[in-house]
């Protein structure tokens, strides 16, 4: 009997030096360095460059890359016009997908598929994603689009473009850490989709547009938004234990809990939990955190032995919410971080490219014949 790997689980199709995950022990590393160290000591700019080049950069290399990002933050006015003319109420990921595809039309280098060209395009896209997403958000709310500033960090600039107000250093750093935690995560669905598109020697913008389409799905990128819906449904900490106990008794899915890879705590969730607690205590918004804390305790006690624990989405929504980001934009923020991993994986795979062509076990009829339409029942 032929074994079918549903969801491609356990199927190996390539090698990568970028990200390592040991789900049973809750380990995540980039270039061999634990994610906790990246979050504590690095920045999104540095991790992006490290992923693109496959090594820790020197101070001079990082300064040059940072300058490139700052110089490329602005997007063409034609794209701003497209964003402003998008229908109100569209899904933000639809808007992002369309905007990135249109951006490719405006890039004279778009059709070049060499690793060098992909690397140059990647730098521009990493810089421009934040501008595009902030512009979509403000345009959809009927607000004037805020132009990027070159004197702010990547994370700080996004928060500025979102609100029109310069964030505090603490807010910028918190958002920077969130971007670091989401920058790459191995061969997830969207990264695999980007690589599959790249394997045909399609252009970089098509690769990233494909990835955005995959991330849009609620089973991949939308879980943190669903967590916030759950928190609003619970209402207050006093009801959290009864709420989650009922969910578990009825064997209902709990958003932000469980992961295809991790059978222990997602290490990213541990980092975000600590920051979510700090923010909640400082801003007096402890209700959400207390609800999550209660839910986590009940979940770990009840089903932790089955390898089901909170994942990165469990706490990320509360962090984003405290930064003034609407829950409809949690998944675009995911893309804002993951653009680095998508681009790095596409570039890495393209250096030893092979067209992806999986197969399926045929389970249909084998001896059928054509029946004229007038004779069909």
TrEMBL record:
The keyword Transferase appears for this protein: yes
Give the GO biological process terms.
carbohydrate metabolic process; tricarboxylic acid cycle
Task: Write down the superkingdom of origin.
Answer: Bacteria
Protein name, UniProt field: Citrate synthase
What pathway or pathways are given for this protein in its record?
Carbohydrate metabolism; tricarboxylic acid cycle
Listed transmembrane segments = none
User: Which NCBIfam families would you find in this protein's record?
Assistant: cit_synth_II
Entry GO CC: cytosol
Q: Which UniProt keywords apply?
A: Transferase, Tricarboxylic acid cycle
**GO MF terms held by the record:** citrate synthase activity
The text of the family note is:
Belongs to the citrate synthase family.
């Amino acid at each position: 009997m032929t074994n079918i790997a549903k969801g491609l689980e356990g199927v190996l199709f390539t090698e990568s030096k970028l990200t390592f995950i040991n789900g049973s022990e809750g380990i995540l590393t980039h270039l061999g360095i634990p994610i906790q160290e990246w979050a504590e000591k690095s920045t999104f700019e540095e991790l992006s460059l490290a992923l693109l080049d496959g090594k820790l950069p020197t101070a001079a290399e990082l300064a040059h890359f940072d300058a490139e990002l700052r110089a490329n933050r602005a997007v063409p006015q034609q794209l701003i016009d497209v964003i402003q003319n998008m229908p109100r109420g569209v899904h933000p990921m639809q808007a992002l997908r369309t905007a990135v595809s249109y951006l490719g039309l405006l890039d004279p280098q778009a059709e070049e598929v060499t690793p060098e060209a992909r690397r140059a395009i990647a730098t521009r896209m990493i810089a421009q994603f934040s501008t595009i997403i902030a512009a979509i958000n403000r345009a959809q709310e009927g607000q004037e689009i805020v132009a990027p500033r070159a004197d702010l960090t990547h994370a700080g600039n996004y928060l500025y473009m979102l609100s029109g107000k310069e964030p505090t250093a603490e807010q910028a750093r918190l958002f920077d850490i969130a971007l670091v935690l989401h920058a790459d995560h191995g061969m997830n669905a969207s990264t695999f989709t980007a690589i599959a598109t790249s394997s045909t020697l399609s252009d970089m913008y098509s690769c990233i547009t494909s990835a955005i389409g995959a991330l849009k799905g609620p089973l991949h990128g939308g879980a943190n938004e669903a967590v916030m819906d759950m928190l609003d449904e619970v209402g207050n900490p006093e009801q959290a234990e009864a709420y989650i106990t009922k969910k578990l008794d009825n064997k209902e899915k709990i958003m932000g809990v469980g992961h295809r890879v991790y059978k222990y705590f997602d290490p990213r969730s541990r980092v975000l939990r600590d920051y979510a607690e700090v923010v909640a205590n400082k801003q007096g918004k402890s209700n959400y955190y207390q609800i999550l804390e209660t839910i986590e305790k009940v979940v770990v006690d009840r089903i932790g032995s089955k390898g089901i624990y909170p994942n990165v989405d469990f706490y990320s929504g509360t962090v984003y919410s405290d930064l003034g980001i609407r829950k409809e934009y949690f998944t675009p923020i995911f893309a804002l971080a993951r653009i680095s991993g998508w681009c790095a994986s596409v570039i890495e795979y393209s250096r030893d490219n092979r067209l992806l062509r999986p197969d399926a076990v045929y389970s249909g009829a084998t001896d059928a014949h054509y029946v004229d339409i007038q004779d069909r029942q």
